[in-house]
């Protein structure tokens, strides 16, 4: 599926192909929720890195978060994801990690293209442990099959394939 994403002020945008465009995974970790916004979690989808086309790149800035700021500075490590955002309006656009060089992770909130809507019972919530999730963010108690203390039991691709929502690249 061809996706177009942009910032709020319109100075930056991107196009990317995604085989896994349904925004179903809500991440409650402190890095995602603080870098993404005030909702208590962030929603990423996955795109194919080689298809990523940037527009207004001169306005884009990057940020690489510290994984655990509570440890002594000498022991702090950077998160593998580099987050891209608009340096003018601050809108977060996507993340990229050299650990998975074939993928890019657009924030669902930056996507302008209509996305497939997951069923409420199919939403996965991750990083719900006490060290990640803030106390005021509520999570529906549908069942524990979709709520994870750390990482879920399947990948973005596996989730999409199991629900016939994987869109094979042409």
From TrEMBL:
One Gene Ontology molecular-function label: carbon-sulfur lyase activity
Domain named CENP-V/GFA: residues: 3-137
Keywords assigned: Lyase, Metal-binding, Zinc
Pfam families xref list: GFA
Keyword Zinc in annotation: yes
Family: Belongs to the Gfa family.
Name of this protein: CENP-V/GFA domain-containing protein
Organism: Mortierella isabellina (Filamentous fungus)
